[in-house]
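re: ur msg from earlier - yeah i can do the cytidine-5'-triphosphate complex, just paste it... oh wait u already did. ok heres what im feeding in:
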Amino acid sequence: MLAGKHILLIIGGGIAAYKSLELIRRLQDAGARVTSVLTKAGEEFVTPLSVSALTGGRVHRDLFDLTAEAEMGHIQLSRSADLVVVAPATADLMAKMAQGLANDLASTLLLATDTPVLLAPAMNVRMWKHPATQRNLTVLRQDGIQVVGPNEGGMACGEFGPGRLAEPEEIRAAVVDFFASGPLAGKRVIVTSGPTHEPIDPVRYIANRSSGAQGTAVARALRALGAEVVFITGPATVRPPEGVDVVPVESARDMDAAVQAALPADAGVFAAAVADWHVTSASDRKLKKSKDGLPVLAFGENPDILRGVAQMKEGRPALVVGFAAETNDVLDNATAKRKRKGCDWIVANDVSPETGIMGGRENAVVLITDEGVETWPRMSKEAVAVQLADRIAAALTT
Ligand code: CTP
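and the outut:
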């Protein structure tokens, strides 16, 4: 959901600062990379060690830190982020921001950046209601700064009212919403992923080596551009992305039914490694060894899900993308496959064991469209997904 996004988290001082640790986790779980800045007041509530242990990087604390200045500089620190999140945003930090003060690392970064900023205020209820804070809030909103919370409730100081830091989950949702207003907002995309399992009996099945990594990365990248994603996945080894509608299936026939139920859609990306056959002689009892010889399995053809959608007479998605997993003559086979299936694009890859692609972390693909053949360099499956999602966005929005 936040794959490829870099968040700069500024942790202000206040009892609620402990929640920022949970927030780091939630942002990372959604796929974001988090860099943190801890204010002097923030250090009174959470230790730099716990923050750096969670972010897996150094915590930036000082404006005049020469090492950091040499490494990247404080201006670079905020500009390289896709979003700056201030949580908790204290009354003091908000006042500095509204006035344009820059007398410590956090306020300097906030003044020097042109990156969008999301504030999660937290303070005593009277401080929040004070006309000065409300004035500052108005100014900050006019400056285009987004605000999540504060919530109403009992506070550590014993008072009750608005001023509690929004929960980490709410802040994460606000971050996701911020990015969800991407080019694919309002578009519905079906993504199939993973292997299928074709049962032989209740305990045995025929499967393939697909991990679901590429399909999962595509779904995540499409979601990050704002698409509503229906993610139809066979029994994959990687976890499905967050923020998508996950439909778990087992067999090719289940997957086909799930795709039909998910239509209509603006686009379909068929990344699943679907079994071509199912066992028609599948037994509903475990097969036993027998003196009468070895079992003989009879096979029937599975529905071709991609072809079915690509050749729909009515209600066909505007863009249908197939994958072609080949072990030889990749380009010829994939070109023929694109024609045979009737899909708009084919993403072809060589899955011979020596490439390490099937079940691996990288992919080397060739994109075949109406306009010709593009060979992409070998890169991570996430990078392939981001590039493909960008292309899909361009195709659906022009
Ligand atoms: N596909 C599908 N339904 C099937 C088989 C394949 O939707 N029953 C889709 C895959 O998700 C992929 C594309 O078709 O997008 C090509 O899959 P692949 O296994 O490479 O091709 P096959 O049609 O199985 O052709 P072959 O086995 O001859 O290579």
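cool cool. The pocket of cytidine-5'-triphosphate is lined by residues 192, 252, 270, 272, 274, 276, 302, 304-306, 322-325, 337 (CB under 6 Å). ping me if u need the other ligands too
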